[in-house]
Every structure is written in structure tokens, then in C-alpha cells.
């Protein structure tokens, strides 16, 4: 295959749109460090303040399914300007807002901006990249998505330690207006014609209800299980979890049923009949459960079992997440050179060694071994993860790539939300009835909970690897 050059305007477009996606994801994780300050400032409890993150994730997840329609209906530059406007407006409201509902409104607006920018970046890469460079450029896109959550807590802690927390959003606005906006106006181009696509509002409402219902089910089921194990009242959470599950699954089934019968569906799903692509999608949804949930597990095990400070626990995640993320373009280069099988499977066979080592040493971990074993996982995960989506979308018809992009990005968001809910529940169950936080019994219980989570991680990654092996066998048989 010839060594095709990457156009300069494509690089500029990726920088412009990618910086918007980066800032959106960064502010998502920055806010988690600010919860204690926000609780004091707005006089809210822990359960209430967490809606700052939860509502953002729900809005991002709900906006992702629209990306296929938006990509077909509007020009890339129009979507880029919409994402810029939403990001700036949300940041301005965060700066001036002095009531908690106003802050939540700002997070909704910012979530919409991030939900537009991230799929737009992937669509630009898929549509405009030279075929011999798709893998490495998808790796760059993955770098944007994975580095931001890695450094978010560190950035939030550093800025809030010397400046008011609103300064984070004061810094963000000039970056958007002086870097992202002018570069995007110059470089974002349209390489495919738009279509007279119609927005199926009923399908949009059903997919939003499905995503919100399933995310709320995971959240409330975790609360109910933790309360039941600790001997508290779990009736309200249990009922809410069941109702959310029924609404979520019912809405999802309705969405699938109506999409098959619609002349202009919100997302075209016919490409999912290909078992090879479907297996890629299952793996792509399972792996973020571990990849994103790992950050929660490492920081909590470090603090509650090993007794480290909050700052040190965050620092333990940073090396593996940062260095591993910067290897994402390397994984894409390996994909471009060797094809999908060896780069993807080799990466995840290496990645699974991390949770295996963590399980083996779970009852005698130190901060150094905790960070080191997570580094092994992070490196392998970053080398292979973006290649799964790249390979799947290269096996569907070009006109369905926006639909595939929408589904894959939505599953990524859902997998991340599921990981945190799952692992927090496992740790809470292990800690129940073990005494006060900081006691030897509580630390031991947390270590046991950590071993359970590491075992669950091994099982999830193993299932994903089996899905990928089966997909590659189907591809080999076709050839």
C-alpha cells in the first residue's frame, strides 16, 4: 500500500475538533475533585453533588445517538460551530452561576457540546484520512479521549489548590476561542454531500429513555445492594432500580423494533446483522467497563486499603493512564502495518496481565506495585482499544459509518458508566459491616473487595478477547 501523505488541513481539523472533545472530557473528570468545595458552597450533600457528573454523562450519552443524523444532515463546519458555542456558553454559565440548579444547567449544555464534538472528530478521521493512515489517526483520536480523564483529577486538584474552582472555566474559554475556533474555521472541510435526513423524534426519545434508564438502573442497583448488605433500608433504591430497568429495556427494544420499520431511522442498524461487526461492538462495550472503572478502583483501594493520601492515590493512576494513552497512535501504526489480528489480540493479552498480577498480589499490594500493574494494563489497553472500532467500521459500507460511529461511541459511554457502578458496588459489599473507615478490619475488607474487582476485570477482558478471536475467525473464513 502506498505511503499516502496526511493533508495539513486534516491535521488542523483533528486538532480543532479534538481540542473541544478533550476540554469536554477534561472538565467532566475535573469536577469530581471539586465535590467537597461544591458541597460547602452550594450546601448540598454527596448524593446531590454527584449529579454534576451524572447529568453530564447522561446528556453526552443521549447526544451521541444523534451524531449519525447530524453528520448526514449538517455540514461539519456547522456542527463544529455548534460545539464551540455550547462549550463557551456552558463555561460562561459555570463562571457566573451561583445556584446549584444553574450549575446543573451549565453541565447539560457542556454535555451537549461534548456529545457533538467527539463523534464529529471520529467522523472527520474516518471520512478524510488516507487509507494507509486511518489506524494511526484513530489512535490520535483515542489519545484525546483517554488522556483527558487521566489528567482531569490532577488538573482540578492543582488549579483549585491555588485559585477558585471557577478559574478552570475562565482558562478554558480563551483556549476555545483563540485556538480551536480559528484553526477549525480554516481547516474543517466537507468531503461528502449532506442528505435530507429527517429526525425521528419518537426514536430519539426512546433511545434517550433507554440510556438514562439503564444508567440509572446500574446506579440505583448498586445503592440498593450496598444498603442491603450493610443492613440499611434499600426499598426505595430497589424499586427505582427495577422501574429504571423496565423503562430502559422496554425503550431499547422499542427503538430497535421501530428502526427496522422506519423509512428514515435515527440510526440505521442493518449493519449489525454482520456477526463479525457485532462481536467487535460487544468487545468495545465490555472493555471500557474495565478501562474507565480502573481509575475508581485504584484510587479507592490506595486510600482505603493502603492508607495513601488522595493526592498520592490520583498520582498512582496518572503514569499508566498518560503513558499508555500516548501509545494509542503507536497501536494505530501497528494496525496500519500488520492488520488487525496481531496488534489487537497482542495488546489485550498483554493488558490482561495487569489485573491478573493485581489479583495474585491483592492482599500484599504496595502503592508501587499497584501503579506498576495498572501501568501494564493501561499500556496494552491503549495499544489495542481504538483499533477495535477502526477495524469494525472498515468492515461496513461507507454510507453506514456515521451510524456505526454513533453506536460505538454510545456503547463506550455506557460501558464507562457501568464500570464505575459495578466496581463501586463490589467494594461496598466487601466493606459492609467491617467497622469504621481507617480501621484494620476496614482496610482488610477493602483489600478483599479489591481482589473481587480484579477477578471481575479478568473475566470481562477474557470475554472481550473471546469475542475478538471469534470475529477474526469469521473474517478469516470469509477470505
Automatic annotation (TrEMBL):
One of its GO terms (molecular function) is transmembrane transporter activity. One of its GO terms (cellular component) is plasma membrane. Keywords: Membrane, Transmembrane, Transmembrane helix, Transport. It is found in: Cell membrane. InterPro entries: MFS, MFS_dom, MFS_trans_sf. It comes from the Bacteria. It holds the Pfam family MFS_1. Residues 13-479 form the Major facilitator superfamily (MFS) profile domain. The keyword Metal-binding does not apply. The keyword NADP does not apply. The chain crosses the membrane at residues 12-35, 47-67, 79-100, 106-126, 138-159, 165-185, 197-218, 238-257, 277-298, 310-332, 344-365, 371-390, 411-432, 452-472. It is a multi-pass membrane protein. PANTHER family: MAJOR FACILITATOR SUPERFAMILY MULTIDRUG TRANSPORTER MFSC (PTHR42718:SF9). This is MFS transporter.
Amino acid at each position: 500500500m502506498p505511503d499516502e501523505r496526511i493533508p495539513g488541513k486534516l491535521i488542523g481539523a483533528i486538532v480543532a475538533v479534538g481540542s473541544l472533545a478533550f476540554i469536554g472530557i477534561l472538565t467532566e473528570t475535573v469536577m469530581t475533585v471539586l465535590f467537597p468545595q461544591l458541597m460547602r458552597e452550594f450546601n448540598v450533600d454527596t448524593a446531590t453533588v454527584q449529579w454534576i457528573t451524572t447529568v453530564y454523562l447522561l446528556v453526552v450519552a443521549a447526544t451521541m445517538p444523534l451524531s449519525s443524523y447530524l453528520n448526514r444532515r449538517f455540514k461539519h463546519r456547522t456542527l463544529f460551530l455548534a460545539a464551540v458555542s455550547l462549550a463557551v456558553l456552558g463555561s460562561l454559565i459555570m463562571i457566573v452561576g451561583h445556584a446549584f440548579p444553574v450549575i446543573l444547567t451549565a453541565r447539560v449544555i457542556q454535555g451537549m457540546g461534548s456529545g457533538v464534538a467527539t463523534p464529529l472528530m471520529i467522523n472527520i478521521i474516518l471520512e478524510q484520512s488516507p487509507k494507509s493512515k486511518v489506524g494511526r489517526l484513530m489512535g490520535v483520536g483515542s489519545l484525546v479521549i483517554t488522556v483527558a480523564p487521566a489528567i482531569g483529577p490532577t488538573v482540578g486538584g492543582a488549579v483549585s489548590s491555588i485559585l477558585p474552582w471557577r478559574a478552570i472555566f475562565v482558562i478554558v474559554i480563551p483556549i476555545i476561542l483563540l485556538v480551536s475556533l480559528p484553526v477549525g474555521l480554516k481547516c474543517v472541510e466537507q468531503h461528502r454531500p449532506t442528505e435530507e435526513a429527517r429526525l425521528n423524534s419518537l426514536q430519539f426519545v426512546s433511545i434517550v429513555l433507554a440510556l438514562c434508564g439503564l444508567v440509572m438502573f446500574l446506579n440505583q442497583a448498586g445503592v440498593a445492594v450496598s444498603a442491603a448488605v450493610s443492613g440499611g433500608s434499600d426499598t426505595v433504591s430497589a424499586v427505582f432500580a427495577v422501574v429504571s430497568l423496565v423503562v430502559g429495556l422496554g425503550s431499547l427494544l422499542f427503538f430497535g423494533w421501530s428502526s427496522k420499520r422506519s423509512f428514515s431511522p435515527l440510526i440505521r442498524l442493518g449493519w449489525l446483522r454482520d456477526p463479525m461487526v457485532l462481536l467487535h461492538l460487544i468487545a468495545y462495550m465490555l472493555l471500557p467497563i474495565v478501562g474507565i472503572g480502573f481509575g475508581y478502583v485504584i484510587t479507592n483501594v490506595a486510600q482505603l486499603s493502603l492508607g495513601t493520601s488522595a493526592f498520592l492515590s490520583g498520582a498512582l493512576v496518572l503514569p499508566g493512564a498518560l503513558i499508555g494513552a500516548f501509545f494509542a497512535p503507536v497501536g494505530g501504526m501497528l494496525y496500519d502495518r500488520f492488520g488487525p489480528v496481531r496488534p489487537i489480540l497482542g495488546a489485550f493479552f498483554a493488558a490482561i496481565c495487569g489485573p491478573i498480577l493485581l489479583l495474585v498480589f491483592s492482599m500484599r499490594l504496595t502503592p508501587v506495585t499497584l501503579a506498576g500493574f495498572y501501568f501494564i494494563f493501561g499500556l496494552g489497553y491503549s495499544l489495542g482499544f481504538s483499533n477495535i472500532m477502526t477495524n469494525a467500521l472498515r468492515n461496513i459500507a461507507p454510507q453506514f459509518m456515521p451510524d456505526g460511529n454513533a453506536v460505538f461511541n454510545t456503547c463506550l459511554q455506557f460501558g464507562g458508566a457501568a464500570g464505575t457502578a459495578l466496581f463501586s458496588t463490589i467494594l461496598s459489599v466487601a466493606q459492609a459491616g467491617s467497622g469504621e473507615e481507617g480501621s484494620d478490619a476496614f482496610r482488610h475488607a477493602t483489600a478483599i473487595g479489591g481482589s473481587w474487582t480484579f477477578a471481575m476485570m479478568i473475566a470481562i477482558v477474557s470475554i472481550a478477547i473471546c469475542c475478538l478471536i471469534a470475529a477474526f475467525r469469521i473474517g478469516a473464513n470469509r477470505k
